[in-house]
Amino acid sequence: MSTTKYPITPAIESNLRIVERGCEELLVKAEFAQKLARSHATGVPLRVKLGLDPTAPDIHLGHTVVLNKMRQLQDLGHTVIFLIGDFTSMIGDPSGRNSTRPPLTREQIESNAKTYYAQASLVLDPARTEIRYNSEWCDPLGARGMIQLASRYTVARMMERDDFTKRFKTGVPISVHEFLYPLMQGYDSVALKADLELGGTDQKFNLLVGRELQKEYGQEPQCILTMPLLEGTDGVEKMSKSKNNYIGIGEAPESMFGKIMSISDTLMWKYFELLSFRSLEDIAALRQEIDAGRNPRDAKVALAQEIVARFHSQQAAEAALAAFDARFRDGAIPDDIPEVTIAGAPVGVLKLLREAGLVASGAEAQRNVEQGGVRIDGDRIEDKALQLPAGTYVVQVGKRKFARVTVTAPA
């Protein structure tokens, strides 16, 4: 471990501000400032690690919150390691869960991993990204190595993890193999000699295990940076395919544009901070303009176009805006429409119209659908039995009645 103290120059302070943008927590900030200063003085880039388990084949905007931070670190000249957890996926990460998550098969893992990096490369610079699979060092450990690794961490420390503690107190089973997950994720940091590891706030315990194991192996401990979990289009739950409130980075431009336009004006600013590549100064100036009376729709259009252009093209972003405007041309959305939340997804369209206050009765709701007077996100609804999953929708009845309706999962 280096004992040399390097000066924290204005350039280092500037880099630190970039790294801290939008982050939830940076541990330990003073240590990381020294790592940055040392890297600057010696010309040796930091090793920045992000591990993703290929539990599903697609990446959504929630995943890109951390990927965007990785890209910023790349642009500062550091080495980014995109780690695909093909070994840890076979264990299953119980973070934030109240039950054991079924492990994936090797076939599922390989199938999902094929598309992961291709999608991540839409954010990261492939030429400056080191791709690794943790089976490289986890498989060779064998039973003897696994026992030796397990001897370096105590059950008491493992039980400090919040979800393990809650499950133990309530009698929910904890399988022994679940203890292996944070242990193996921590060992990844040892194998890669990571200087900094990134993850969502739900990964904090696992990231700290890596820090402790590095000390056990005589390495300089990594710093950890956690990023907030991005709420999905419903504005309530974290973005997730299982909640059907996600925006996939591989979605068609019009779909991506429309979903971004459906988020609330309040949530829009969190999306700007975590997803936009605009400077914080630009975002603050835009927010001042909105507070001074400019239409919030203008800001949301700018955000939607930026994101669509990033994952498709500027031409696709322009076309998506034109298509979006065309869908609402017959009845332009007012600047200020009521926002309603309805629990218990899926919700039938007739019930949704009643509870949103857009009709007075079920009969009126049915009549409006039959007559073609109901639109959801600009699309005319003809199915009276339509069930709407969790998500946020702009609902229109006739030419003048609008509501932004958020349907949430059952409590």
Automatic annotation (TrEMBL):
Any single Pfam family the record assigns to this protein: SYY_C-terminal
Main localisation: cytoplasm
GO molecular function, one term: tyrosine-tRNA ligase activity
Residue interval(s) of motif 'KMSKS' region: 238-242
Transmembrane regions: none
Keywords from the UniProt entry: Aminoacyl-tRNA synthetase, ATP-binding, Cytoplasm, Ligase, Nucleotide-binding, Protein biosynthesis, RNA-binding
EC code: 6.1.1.1
Span of the annotated motif 'HIGH' region: 54-63
GO biological process, alphabetically ordered: tyrosyl-tRNA aminoacylation
NCBIfam families: tyrS
Family: Belongs to the class-I aminoacyl-tRNA synthetase family. TyrS type 2 subfamily.
Protein name (Swiss-Prot/TrEMBL): Tyrosine--tRNA ligase
Organism: Zwartia hollandica
